[in-house]
Design brief:
This protein is mainly beta and 184 residues long. It is 4% helix and 57% strand. It contains 1 helix and 11 strands; from the N terminus they run E-E-E-E-E-E-H-E-E-E-E-E. The chain has an 8-stranded antiparallel barrel with strand order 1-4-5-7-8-9-10-11. The longest helix has 8 residues. It is elongated and about 55 Å long. The two termini are 15 Å apart.
């Protein structure tokens, strides 16, 4: 058992949701993009050094928002996210590798609808700074592309002129701000 003098503080970074966003974009009719976001999600990083720390993101699948109530209801249905059966989407990192100054590849396991696949995300580290109240913050921007069918999001409709209503590729982007917490 550790004594109080042997016990070390564990650094934990938690999501600052009011300064963060998690977005997606999908081709519609093969000519334009439909954008959406998840409005409720959590993220945490355990450790001081981001390159060796684990990242866990938990997304409330029912918080999907595309600015169209009927489309949002369809996305929550069994045709897509099936949120009543699978209410949570998770991402758990497996590596965070430096590409060059400030740019990284974040690799991890993305789970939704009971299916888990490895994804790679391009990450730009914005740096750290203290807010006016002395809280240390860290910021990241991320981008990636996944094929929605890899997670069983298969619904689509053929177009009369050829092609499909919704593309298979989904572009993911996010701007994430974390706040540093120390547990002793």
């Amino acid at each position: 058992m550790e004594t109080l003098t042997e016990k070390k503080a564990i650094t934990k970074w938690v999501l600052d949701l009011s300064h963060s966003e998690l977005n997606f974009k999908v081709k519609h009719l093969m000519i334009s993009n439909v954008k959406g976001e998840f409005r409720k999600f959590e993220a945490e990083v355990i450790g001081e050094d981001f390159s060796t720390s684990g990242v866990l993101v938990t997304i409330d699948a029912s918080s999907i928002f595309t600015n169209d109530d009927a489309r949002d209801a369809h996305l929550k249905s069994a045709d897509f996210f099936e949120v009543e059966k699978y209410p949570v989407i998770t991402f758990e990192s497996t590596s965070f590798k430096k590409v060059d100054n400030g740019n990284y590849i974040l690799t991890g396991q993305l789970s939704m609808k009971g299916i888990t696949n490895t994804v790679n995300l391009d990450v730009e580290f914005g740096g750290t700074n203290k807010d006016p109240w002395g809280n240390e913050k860290a910021a990241f921007s991320l981008n990636g592309v996944i094929n929605r069918k890899d997670w069983g999001l298969n619904w689509n409709a053929a177009l009369e002129t050829g092609g499909v209503l919704v593309s298979d590729d989904v572009r993911i982007s996010g701007d994430i701000q974390l706040a540093k917490k120390s547990d002793e």
